Amino acid sequence: MTKEITIDDLKMYRALVETGSVLGKNTVLNIISHAGEAAETILRKQNAIDTLDRIITQQCQAALDATGLHHLIDEDGDGDWSAVWEGLQELADQKRHAERNADTYQKLYEQRAESLEQAERERDEWRGKYDESETARIFGEAQQERVRALHSPEPARYYGTDLNPNRQHDCAGCGEGWAWPCGTIRALDGDPNAAV
Ligand SMILES: [Zn+2]
Predict the structure, then answer these.
(1) What is the pTM assigned to this prediction?
(2) Are 169 and 152 in contact, with CB atoms under 8 Å apart?
(3) How far, in Å, is the centroid of ligand 1 from the Cα of 164?
(4) Distance, CA 168 to ligand 1 centroid (Å)?
(5) How far is CA 112 from CA 89, 107, 108, 123, 126, in A?
(6) How remote is the CA of residue 161 from the centroid of ligand 1, in Å?
(7) How far is the CA of 185 from the centre of ligand 1 (A)?
(8) What's the pLDDT band for 2 if we cut at 50, 70, 90?
(9) Fewer Cβ neighbours under 10 Å: the N or C end of the chain?
(10) Which H or E element spans position 64?
(11) What are the domain boundaries of the chain?
């Protein structure tokens, strides 16, 4: 039973059966057929085992590479594998932590971005208001300049005579007898008593 059956053995048995020397031809052919099937099954299982072995080896190597715990395992693959798997579990925990942190940071970032946007909106609003008052100021200055341009000093008539002993200049805009600076100019210069 322990001896392997070779192709030559089978050929010999087949020859014996065909000559009717041993068991019935069909019985032996049946046995041979079953033996072939069994051999195929064994081969398939061997292939599956090889594949699994390759996968397990790869996974073990991946676990070692991921954890960096190479020093716990020797060249033959023997060593403290339970420590390696624990290390892998720790890595998974760290990854989950990191993912939660990333979520938190993402939320914070979004909140910051939102308040930044709000600040920018407020700034633009204020800028609009500032521009408005600035425009009004510039416009007011131009108006004042135009009013101011209508008034200018000119030498007063009869200055130094009894008719006009003191008034050196009149306002050309306001007319003769209106001392320079006239009320308009003094009002523009901020004199509160200009109209008096
Ligand atoms: Zn005047």
Answers:
(1) 0.39
(2) no
(3) 18
(4) 14
(5) 35, 9, 6, 16, 21
(6) 23
(7) 6
(8) low
(9) N
(10) helix 25-67
(11) 1-67, 75-149, 150-188
